[in-house]
Amino acid sequence: MPSPEILPLDELSDSELLEDFIPQQRVTINNKSALKKICNEIKIDVPWIETQVITSSEPASIKDINNDIERELALFVQLDPFVTLEGAIEGRKNVLASGVPFSRPDDYFAEMVKSDVHMSRIRQKLVDEEQSIKASEEARRQRELKKFERKGIEDTAIDDDFDIALEQAAADDRPKKRQNTGKNTKRISKNARYGFGGKKRHSKSNTATSSADISQFDSKKSKGFGRRASTANQKRKSTKKRPGKARRKSTRNKK
């Protein structure tokens, strides 16, 4: 009978866990003394400025090193501002002790990684984006204003229609005046009392009937009218003409 196959447990999947296999769990060994000894053997004695390693004065306390959450939490604790400030102060002291300058001089101008042409394109792109945002905001504001204006116009039209309807309703409720189908009663009473004078315009003008009526013509009164007229014409014809200016002047000189 063949012996069962022995495989590590961490190399098996769920589908491979069969009854014929005998799982074997890998043993983790943490021999601190041996690790420290090997670390000291391979350690190279170099200046601190080459490594710039600073160990925190407060050790990390992790109960279960296999717990990822606890390890991450320990890292966050190491990033506490007070702990970080302590490490920064110690690192500054070590740098000063090493004699290596780390502060930038006042007259030092570092060369840009990007060229001026590239930075100008980036700057122009940022300006265009800002203008586009402003234009879109202005367009949205104008749309909102037009919406409010349209709503105000509609409200005004509704109010006007309501006022017109009220006026029409009030006019319908008023008693209608009696239409004057004839003459005024006062006028009729005065005409009955004083009489009607009649039409005054063209009252003295002749008409065809009055011109043809000769009943009031008196022939005796009209006698001699033609003779007097002819006599006056004869006298007018027999009158001497007035002499001219030269003759009148000579006549005056003779006198």
TrEMBL record:
GO cellular component, as recorded: nuclear periphery; nucleolus; preribosome, large subunit precursor
Protein location: Nucleus, Nucleolus
Biased composition (Basic residues): 176-190, 234-255
Keyword Nucleus among record annotations: yes
The keyword Coiled coil is annotated on this UniProt entry: yes
Primary localization: nucleus
Coiled coil start-end: none
InterPro entries cross-referenced by the UniProt entry: Ebp2
Record-linked Pfam families: Ebp2
Keywords per UniProt: Coiled coil, Nucleus, Ribosome biogenesis
Family membership noted in the UniProt record: Belongs to the EBP2 family.
Protein name: 327_t:CDS:1
Organism in which the protein naturally occurs: Cetraspora pellucida
Lineage of the species this protein comes from: Eukaryota, Fungi, Fungi incertae sedis, Mucoromycota, Glomeromycotina
